[in-house]
Design goal:
The chain is an alpha/beta fold. It has helices at about 10-20, 50-60, 80-90, 125-145, 165-175, 195-205, 225-240, 260-270, 275-290; strands spanning about 1-5, 25-30, 40-45, 65-70, 95-100, 110, 150-155, 155-160, 180-185, 190-195, 215, 225, 245, 260. The strands form 4 sheets. A 7-stranded parallel sheet has the order 3-2-1-4-5-7-11, with helices on both faces. Strands 8-10-12 form a 3-stranded mixed sheet.
């Protein structure tokens, strides 16, 4: 298929482009830079996805069968208006518009199912608000103009090439001989998904005809851990002798963003393959090299 990957040069997009090429698909990446590192097989479009006019101009005269919308601008925020403008600017024949959302769109909570309400338009956290509103905008387009949208809601994504300062925070401290800090009493529960498992789910969303019009939680029950468990797992896998220390948490201790993946398992045939421990073990060598 002829695929457009919006934000294809960093973390999730970078892994996605590699897998699309392996599958023999035609790939174009859209980002703000004049070139990318994928070679001649991958076409390049330069645009700022937060600029609707620039997006419309950049996509004029081009058509795609599948769009993977992965970009979120962490400095400025990417709003529902930006996302809707992008979806409207894409020319068809479009078979899928796959939007990378987040379980953050629900707000905090355990065992979220896709039928649960998303966060309100006035949610205090900008990222939560933007993801929830963007999904609502896309599903309205699905109802009104038949946009073949699929939204994916992962928890914390980790793995090689991660530009977000998550797992590297721990490893930087260990390299410096410092202690690992755990907030509160360490019992705060979170779920992580390995980036390549998430990419596999995105590819399944592209080909499963019954996926259109649906949202899917893409997590991993084997990737669920408390902060305390995660800290000791990292110490064990790195062979570090550093200590774990607890620091007071400024807010209430609540369970955070642990989704149910039953729907993705049933409809997409999604099965996570990498446990949290195995995923961290795969990521450490990349961190040490880079």
């Amino acid at each position: 298929m002829n695929c457009l990957v919006i934000g294809g040069t960093q973390f999730i997009g970078r892994h996605l482009v590699a897998e699309l090429l392996k599958g023999g698909h035609a790939v174009t990446v859209l980002h703000r830079q004049p070139k990318h590192g994928f070679g001649r097989r991958v076409k390049n479009i330069i645009a700022d996805r937060n600029d609707p006019r620039a997006m419309k101009a950049a996509l004029a005269g081009k058509s795609f069968e599948v769009v993977f919308d992965n970009v979120y601008d962490w400095k400025r925020g990417t709003t529902a208006g930006h996302v809707e403008a992008t979806a409207r600017a894409v020319n068809g024949p479009l078979h899928r518009y796959i939007f990378m959302s987040s379980v953050a769109a629900y707000g905090d909570g355990l065992n979220h199912h896709e039928g649960d309400a998303l966060a309100p338009d006035d949610a205090p956290d900008l990222y939560v608000r933007n993801k929830a509103m963007s999904e609502r905008a896309l599903f309205r387009l699905h109802q009104r103009i038949g946009l073949p949208v699929v939204t994916l809601r992962p928890p914390f994504v980790y793995g090689p090439v991660n530009p977000i300062y998550r797992e590297a925070f721990f490893w930087d401290r260990l390299r410096a001989g410092r202690k690992i800090i755990v907030p509160g009493d360490g019992r705060r529960l979170m779920q992580f998904v390995y980036v390549k498992d998430l990419v596999t789910a995105a590819l399944r969303s592209m080909t499963e005809k019954n996926a259109v019009g649906h949202a899917f939680n893409i997590g991993n029950p084997q990737g669920t851990a408390t902060n305390f468990e995660l800290a000791h797992m990292i110490l064990r896998l790195t062979g570090s002798k550093s200590d774990v220390v607890f620091k007071p948490h400024p807010g209430p201790e609540v369970d955070l963003r642990v989704p149910s993946i039953e729907k993705a398992s049933t409809l997409l045939g999604y099965k996570p393959t990498v446990s949290l421990e195995a995923g961290i073990a795969k990521t450490i060598p990349w961190y040490r090299e880079h």
